[in-house]
Design brief:
heterodimer, A: 457 residues, alpha/beta, Fumarate Reductase Iron-sulfur Protein, Chain B, domain 2, Rossmann fold, 3 domains, four-stranded parallel sheet, 21 helices, 10 strands, globular, B: 229 residues, Fumarate Reductase Cytochrome B subunit, 73% helix
Amino acid sequence: MTETTPTTREPDPLEFDQPRVSIRKPEHRFDTQGEAPDAVRVERAMNSFVRDFGRTAAIYMESCIHCGMCAEACHFYEVTQDPQYTPIWKLEPFKQAYKREYGPFAFVYRALNLKPKVTVDELQQWQHLIYDSCTVCGRCSLMCPMGIDIASLVSQARHGMFKAGLVPHELAAVTERARREGSPLGATPKVFADRCEWLADEHEVEITIDKPRADVLCAMSSIEIMKYPESIVATARIMRHIGADWTFRLDGYEATNFGLLTGDAATQKELTLKIIHAAVACGARVVVLPECGHAYTALRWMGANMYGKPLPFKVMHIAEFLAEQVHAGKLRLRKVNRTATFHDPCQLVRRGGAIEAPREVLQALGVELREMYPTKGANWCCGGGGGVVAIHRADELRHKVFRIKMEQIEETGAELPVTSCANCRQTFDDGQAHFKWDKTMHSLLELVADNLVEDEQ
Amino acid sequence: MSLLDFARGPALQWSIVIFVVGVLWRLLGVLLLRTRKDHSAPRKEAAWKGLRLIALRSWPRKEFLGGTAFGEVMGYAFHIGFLLALFFFVPHVLFFADIARGLLGTDLHGLTGLNWPTLPNGVVTLLSAISIAALVAVLIHRIVSPVKRLISNFDDYFSWLVTIAPLATGMAAFAHLGGWPYEQLLAVHLLSAELLLAWFPFGKLMHAFTIFAARGSTGMLFERKGASL
């Protein structure tokens, strides 16, 4: 057993003076939470894993033929050629548990002890595979010849790991902070309100907060609030430009959801419901999500299921919202006469389905789009998704993975790398600093805000 | 009771019973599980169109082809060889017709007036040889590839064995190998096929059925979101 988090401990200090925001590198890692005995941890992990099982996940568990092709799709395997990073291997203890405890022949496996019980030591070893070296990017799910959505199984395994108190230190710390303060990176309602006030003065733009009724409710990610506050300004400028009836609300402004990344389903639900209740309270017709991939998954695809019924409003990623405004002729943009390439955020594009919207916005900006290879659904992940960018011990591996992105972008010869996810963006910032690379990732949202035609008038 | 009588009688009956009951048990065991209703607003209403993934995933996207081509080609080689030999070899067709007459009182010809097509013996021999060669290749790959070696378990090796055994014993019987009595060769061939049937529900051979459910489920879930297939 590694050290367990003491029950009374000061929250980990956050670190904002680095290219990526996380907690400061812990002197002592606590990658085990709570006081439960080993056997109880294992039982909780496995119970949670198999209890979540529905038909689809069970079909997946029955279908793997151990062909190993998923390895070819995984960026962590691609750069290391280390077989432990084979995506389906990341689920091995959980596959064992499924066969032993839940599958149609579980009674045979148990009676003949064909699959041994999983141990805490195994689960602790697997923490590195389930968290540090999986961004839940789902590229493997696109490769699997059986059609198994491996990424969804990793998310399910994370639920088990959380229940067992076996979450990496950083993710446990920021999720705990999110639960206590409403934001994983200290973007509390007061901090957010103060930032908006300061930004409104600094940039001479009206930032609407807590309007009682509004058509459009906007939300931001904590990375933007704390690291890229220009995104808040950009959002406000664009909303004013198109004449939207919009607002931020202090009871639901934070779209980051570390509950989803950690596997803490209760916190995920709590954070999601804040935005849903805020939107309902102001009668919003549309909730516009920030440049954040997993925030999109959390509300667009999982929100209604947390709510228990269809949402009474539409959920859009800011890139989709911008594309809609382009089509409606409301967004008048100055042409950017430069070459650009688009990095596809996995949760937005490959797994979220908003494949063309960001490209339509780039087209409206008049850039010459030079696609990477591979691109769109098959594009490589930046390496920082799924909470990986926050985990200090994963830095070395993540930097190796980042080389793929640098090569992809260099090959396009494009001047402007653009994306629409603040987490990808900070992963690029960190990679840029590490490799002293001369390319800086740009935000699609900020690129649009910087080129609104009215700004020239 | 001779070995051939045993292979044609109780062994055949029991292996079919184990196969049918086992396959149904395993399939229904997962297909009857609950699913939660998805309340999210679909991007595409016609999620069923995602069922095209069942066909689409039969060949990798071009981005993935480089690293997987060997597995794909060898996989197709042994599957196609095995299935053609199984269903279009004259003695097999006669054997199945015999079983059909035993169970239904008639065969395909009696039911429809159509004859089941067959392949010349030489072609079946060639197909079996290709299939065996491809199976040997995938076994070697499983052992030498660090990825496949790590993720492999008993099921992978045993399923390989029960798959290659009917091919090998079938060719041996056809060639009257080693001067053994034909009846014994035939009995061993039948028993090896029955071992495959009896093992089928318990291991990875079940992918012959689950592949449709897995690809279909993912296809529909992803199509609903407009996600990449």
